[in-house]
């Protein structure tokens, strides 16, 4: 008879309790806020800071704020004797509500603002499918968004198709911010890729030109580039030719962003293992085939955070165009501070909070889309 195996279990183990779900609110708190004693201390400090500043912020922004009104009187505290000159308590959102259309369109004529709205609808209709990875016909979508749409938008906004002309000095507000950002992003990415490839080129002349351009542009502030585009660019034009101020700003912003984009892309190119280049060469691919099919897709995927970071910086830097007489969102908000009918101690702070919130919404959206694309492309980095 075979010897009985003493190490074989005869009874089944009792079932273990289900693991704590990290997806619940309690699980998230334990994992992110109370995981270690240090986390507990930092969480308590953070709660203490919030307890100090949050009530005052809520009172100023919402509870004591004035939301509607025709002038600055609605933003004052009403006492028995009337309006107190020094009785300003909360945010003056009535100022934002009164000037909201100007913050969006600038001084664009009221009867022609439907053109701006139409351009905005077209932009969203083309951008959303472009951002959805599984949306079909990406090539056609890209052609419509980056080639056809800018031409149509220019004629709609400036004048064409039988429409009256609206000079660019009348443009302003969020409209200018979005136009500068879109053109800067659309131009800086392909130009930055070409500059990065040129900097790594084996041809000395091409490499020298790209290096000089990148280092010179990155070595000066954007304000300097905008002044040079505004003052020096017309000097290179034939006699009698002029360049619109808005176009000068577009050129300056695009060139400035492309230099930074070139260095971001170059970092991705250097991160590609040498074996990828050798493998592409062994297949008999030409330089452009190797770059387009093998190298660039991997390099751009690796530097998505850097690319989006450059886009976010570009979006915020558009506020500097007020230096050359263009009024973006921040510029048009600050311009309205001089309106005597809304002159209160809280008007500037309220306007700046509004402008900052709008900038934050767009920047946060770009940041979240960047994280989504990283997960979709599975870059292998921990998030």
Automatic annotation (TrEMBL):
Transmembrane domains' residue ranges: 40-62, 114-132, 139-158, 170-197, 209-233, 320-337, 349-367
Main location: membrane
Subcellular location: Cell inner membrane; Cell membrane
Domain of life of the native organism: Bacteria
Pfam families: BPD_transp_1
InterPro entries in the record: AA_ABC_transptr_permease_3TM, ArtM/GltK/GlnP/TcyL/YhdX-like, MetI-like, MetI-like_sf
Entry membrane topology: Multi-pass membrane protein
Limits of the ABC transmembrane type-1 domain: 174-370
Keywords, alphabetical: Cell membrane, Membrane, Transmembrane, Transmembrane helix, Transport
Gene3D superfamilies named among the record's database cross-references: MetI-like (1.10.3720.10)
UniProt keyword Transmembrane helix present: yes
Similarity remark: Belongs to the binding-protein-dependent transport system permease family. HisMQ subfamily.
Protein name: General L-amino acid transport system permease protein
Origin species: Peteryoungia aggregata LMG 23059
């Amino acid at each position: 008879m075979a010897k009985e195996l003493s190490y074989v279990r005869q009874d089944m183990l009792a079932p273990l309790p289900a693991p704590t779900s990290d997806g619940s609110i309690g699980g998230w708190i334990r994992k992110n806020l109370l995981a270690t004693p240090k986390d507990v201390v930092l969480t308590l400090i953070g709660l203490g800071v919030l307890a100090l500043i949050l009530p005052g912020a809520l009172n100023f922004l919402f509870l004591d704020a004035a939301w509607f009104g025709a002038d600055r009187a609605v933003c004052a505290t009403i006492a028995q004797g009337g309006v107190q000159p020094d009785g300003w308590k909360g945010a003056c959102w009535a100022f934002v509500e009164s000037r909201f259309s100007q913050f969006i369109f600038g001084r664009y004529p009221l009867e022609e603002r439907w053109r701006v709205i139409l351009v905005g609808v077209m932009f969203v209709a083309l951008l959303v499918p472009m951002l959805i990875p599984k949306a079909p016909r990406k090539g056609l979508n890209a052609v419509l968004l980056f080639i056809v749409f800018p031409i149509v938008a220019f004629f709609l906004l400036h004048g064409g198709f039988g429409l009256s002309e609206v000079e660019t000095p009348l443009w302003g507000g969020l409209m200018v911010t979005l136009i500068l950002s879109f053109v800067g992003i659309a131009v800086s990415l392909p130009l930055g890729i070409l500059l990065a490839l040129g900097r790594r080129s084996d041809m000395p002349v091409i490499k020298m030109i790209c290096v000089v351009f990148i280092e010179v542009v990155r070595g000066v502030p954007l304000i300097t580039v905008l002044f040079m585009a505004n003052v020096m660019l017309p000097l290179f034009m034939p006699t009698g030719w002029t360049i619109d101020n808005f176009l000068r700003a577009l050129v300056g912003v695009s060139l400035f962003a492309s230099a930074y984009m070139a260095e971001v892309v170059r970092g991705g190119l250097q991160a590609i293992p040498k074996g990828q280049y050798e493998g592409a060469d062994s297949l008999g691919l030409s330089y452009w085939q190797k770059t387009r099919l093998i190298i660039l897709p991997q390099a751009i995927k690796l530097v998505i955070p850097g690319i989006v970071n450059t886009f976010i910086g570009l979006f915020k830097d558009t506020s500097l165009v007020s230096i050359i007489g263009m009024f973006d969102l921040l510029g048009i908000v600050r311009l309205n501070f001089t309106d005597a009918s809304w002159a209160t101690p809280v008007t500037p702070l309220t306007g700046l909070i509004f402008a900052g919130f709008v900038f934050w919404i767009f920047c946060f959206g770009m940041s979240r889309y960047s994280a989504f694309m990283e997960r979709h492309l599975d870059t292998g980095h921990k998030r």
